[in-house]
């Protein structure tokens, strides 16, 4: 089995490149946290810090905060890639079942392919994090205590191994449940795209129930913010905690309800474009709507990333504004916030790009068929641009719910504290995020179309045996 799995991976390594890149990016961030943790626990570092009179906790508090965020983002990114990787190869394993392979063999083969992909990315990430660590870890520690005489960074031998293990294990864990489903799914249902309606309906009901619960939690916290004065929760710290709790609950609800919310956005966009002469753009939105169940897997991490960045910036900037109003001249350092924003943005964009690339591996044949039907190259590009724009716009609109929740809490608490409303809306960050998402998704969707657009549809159709 190992020989066949290795051959299958070697034959289709290009389609796994985006997934390997995501694993490499995420494990690089994880590896930097592991190196920082290992170095701040080293005896030489402790001796230097004690001599400088700086508490070791100052180096650990901020690194633990950023490390926790990276761990959560890594878990989401790697499990999403793991699920998407299994989903896109389920038809291949359905053929194995048709040829007599046992469910156990299919399950093992599924996880073996995923392990190969994760290992390639994790090894790259561990190597990069070790090299970058010689600059990043000292720079981070100097920023925490610029006057301390710290020793040069020394990489710990077990840090790269721990990084690889964490990266591979997380990605494989994300693919376990889809692998079980792939091994137990009848071949006819796996080969037929419409064969999972009952299972999909059951999971939809569970998602809606869980999403409604978290919406109620967020609504309750917003109501509580209206009584901040009576509750004695008008300090900047109380406002921040309440805003993050409420908007975090809304963010979880958005992630759970993403397929339904995205379908509504696509339906509205298609309804608007259908009344305009932009036929190719309308067709692109319709294509996104037809793939809503898989696109939701793409859009969910993107919406969660945009929503998380938006609610964090809204909460932190509003707290800084409230603090300055209560205590003028107070200095606020947002370095850690921007570090978290950068981490979330890179990971969520990379994850969405990888999932789109996996789902778009057969798009070359689709584009060739559209060309054969008479669609010009400019129209194909317009279709792809509108499809990627619809996905980016859907993610941004869905992400506005947790941001609006944070802003509402901040407005209520600041009014109770000052008698006036202070809210710092992250308009610029959300706009940049939407544009960056559109460009990344457009490039990823355009790659499979490059060959038929360059050589014409006949080459692609012959290659696919059409």
Question: How far apart are the first and last residues' alpha carbons, in Å?
Answer: 30 Å
Instruction: Tell me the overall shape.
Output: globular
Largest sheet: none
Rounded average pLDDT: 79
Question: What's the structural domain tally?
Answer: 2
Pfam family, one: FtsX
Transmembrane segments: 20-39, 59-86, 106-137, 157-180, 208-229, 249-269, 299-320, 340-360, 389-413, 425-447
Keywords: Cell membrane, Membrane, Transmembrane, Transmembrane helix
Domain ABC3 transporter permease C-terminal: 65-187, 339-456
What labels describe this entry?
single chain, 466 residues, mainly alpha, 2 domains
Report what the structure shows.
The longest helix has 42 residues, at 103-144. The protein has two domains: 1-195, no CATH class; 198-466, no CATH class. The model has no long low-confidence stretch (mean pLDDT 79). 84% of the residues lie in helices and 0% in strands. It has helices spanning 2-11, 13-40, 43-52, 56-88, 90-98, 103-144, 158-184, 187-191, 197-225, 228-231, 236-256, 258-273, 279-290, 292-326, 335-359, 363-372, 377-418, 427-446, 450-455, 457-463. It is an all-alpha fold and 466 residues long.
How is this fold's topology laid out?
Elements lengths: L1 H10 L1 H28 L2 H10 L3 H33 L1 H9 L4 H42 L13 H27 L2 H5 L5 H29 L2 H4 L4 H21 L1 H16 L5 H12 L1 H35 L8 H25 L3 H10 L4 H42 L8 H20 L3 H6 L1 H7 L3
Helix pairs in contact: 1-6, 2-4, 2-6, 2-7, 2-15, 4-6, 4-7, 4-15, 6-7, 9-11, 9-17, 11-14, 11-17, 12-13, 12-14, 12-17, 13-17, 14-15, 14-17, 14-18, 15-18, 16-20, 17-18
């Amino acid at each position: 089995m190992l020989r066949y799995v290795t051959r299958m991976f070697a034959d289709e390594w290009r389609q796994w490149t985006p997934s390997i890149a995501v694993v490499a990016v995420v494990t690089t961030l994880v590896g930097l946290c592991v190196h920082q943790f290992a170095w701040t626990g080293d005896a030489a570092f402790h001796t230097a810090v004690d001599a400088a009179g700086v508490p070791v906790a100052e180096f650990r508090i901020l690194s633990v905060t950023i490390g926790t965020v990276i761990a959560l983002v890594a878990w989401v990114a790697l499990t999403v890639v793991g699920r998407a990787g299994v989903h896109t190869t389920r038809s291949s394993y359905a053929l194995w079942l048709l040829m007599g392979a046992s469910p156990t063999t299919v399950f093992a083969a599924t996880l073996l392919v995923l392990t190969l992909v994760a290992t390639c990315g994790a090894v790259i990430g561990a190597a990069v994090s070790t090299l970058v660590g010689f600059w990043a870890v000292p720079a981070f520690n100097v920023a925490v205590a610029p006057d301390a005489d710290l020793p040069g960074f020394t990489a710990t031998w077990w840090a790269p191994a721990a990084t690889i293990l964490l990266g591979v294990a997380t990605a494989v864990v994300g693919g376990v449940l889809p692998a079980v489903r792939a091994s137990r799914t009848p071949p006819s249902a796996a080969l037929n795209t419409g064969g999972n309606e009952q299972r999909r309906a059951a999971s939809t009901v569970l998602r809606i129930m869980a999403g409604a619960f978290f919406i109620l939690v967020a609504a309750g916290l917003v109501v509580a913010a209206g009584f901040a004065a009576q509750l004695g929760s008008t300090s900047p710290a109380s406002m921040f905690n309440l805003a993050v709790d409420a908007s975090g609950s809304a963010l979880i609800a958005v992630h759970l309800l993403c397929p339904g919310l995205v379908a509504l956005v696509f339906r509205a966009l298609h309804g608007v474009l259908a009344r305009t002469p932009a036929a190719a753009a309308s067709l692109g939105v319709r294509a996104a709507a037809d793939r809503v169940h898989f696109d939701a897997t793409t859009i969910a991490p993107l919406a969660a990333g945009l929503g998380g960045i938006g609610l964090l910036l809204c909460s932190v900037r509003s707290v800084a504004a409230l603090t300055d109003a209560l205590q003028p001249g107070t200095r606020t350092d947002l370095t850690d916030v921007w570090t978290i924003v950068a981490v979330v943005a890179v990971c969520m964009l990379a994850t969405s790009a990888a999932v789109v690339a996996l789902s778009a591996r057969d798009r070359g044949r689709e584009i060739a068929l559209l060309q054969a039907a008479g669609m010009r190259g400019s129209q194909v590009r317009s279709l792809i641009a509108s499809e990627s724009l619809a996905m980016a716009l859907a993610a941004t609109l869905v992400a506005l719910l947790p941001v609006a929740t944070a802003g509402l809490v901040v407005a209520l608490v600041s009014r109770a504290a000052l008698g006036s409303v202070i809210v710092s809306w992250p308009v610029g960050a959300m706009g940049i995020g939407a544009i960056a998402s559109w460009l990344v998704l457009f490039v990823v969707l355009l790659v499979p179309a490059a060959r038929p657009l360059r050589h014409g549809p006949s080459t692609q159709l012959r290659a696919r045996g059409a």
